Amino acid sequence: MYVDDDPKHPDILRLRILWRASERDAGYEKLTNFLASDDVRAKLDDCYEGSHGERAKVYPGEADKFGSDMWPTTYQNWMSGSEMALTILNLLAQGAPLKMPVDGHWHYRVHMFSNPLGLGYIGEAELSLRHAQTYLEMQSDDRSEALVKAIKGYFGEEPETGEAPAR
After folding, report:
1. Which label site among 27, 38, 102, 163 has the fewest CB atoms less than 10 Å from its CB?
2. CA 162, 67, 49 angle in degrees (round to 5)?
3. C-alpha of 165 from chain center
4. 51 by DSSP, 3-state: which?
5. What is the spatial distance between Cα 53 and Cα 10, in angstroms, rounded to a whole number?
6. 3-class DSSP assignment, residue 64
C-alpha cells in the first residue's frame, strides 16, 4: 500500500494477480464477489479493475520497457519479492517472531541481485544510493534535499544540475 502524507494523493492498495490457468475463472469470480460485497464496499473509497490507475485497462506487462528477453525474469523477480513481503506481513500479523528483521531480508534480496553482477559491496552501496536519491528527489523537505546534495557530492556531481563538474 502506498502511503503519502500529501492529501492530494490518496492511499492506494494495488493488487497484481497472476491466476493459475486452472483457477482463473473461479478465482476471478470469488475475488470480484468479495470486493463487491457490502462489507468490503463500506471500507473502501473506491475499487476498480485497471492498469496503472487507469480504469478498465488490462495490464499488458512491460516487455517494451525491460526487453522481451528480460521481462519474464523481471516479472518472476517481482512476484517472488511480493511473496516474500506478504509472508513477512502475514507472520508479523500473527505475532510470529522473525528470525531476521525486515531490513535484513531486504539486504539479502538486494545482495543476491548485486553479487552475481560482480558489483561487490561498494557497487551495491552505490546502486542503493542512486535508488535512495530517486525517492528523495520526490520529496520537498530540507532533510531530503540535504541528503540528495550529499549523494550528488559523493558521485562528484554538481548539486544544482546533476552533471559532473568540469575538470
Report:
1. 38
2. 95
3. 32
4. strand
5. 12
6. helix
Helix ranges (H only) for the chain are 24-36, 38-41, 63-66, 71-93, 102-114, 120-136, 142-154
* C-alpha span between 70 and 80 (Å, rounded): 16
Three cell numbers, residue 44: 473502501
Question: Are the C-beta atoms of residues 163 and 157 closer than 8 Å to each other?
Answer: yes
CA-closest candidate to residue 127, choices 143, 111, 140, 139: 111
Task: Return per-residue pLDDT of the chain as tens, 167 residues.
Answer: 445 566 555 677 777 788 889 999 999 999 999 999 999 988 888 888 888 878 888 888 899 999 999 999 999 999 999 999 999 999 999 999 999 999 999 999 999 999 999 999 999 999 999 999 999 999 989 999 999 999 999 999 986 655 665 55
What 8-state DSSP symbol labels residue 21? G
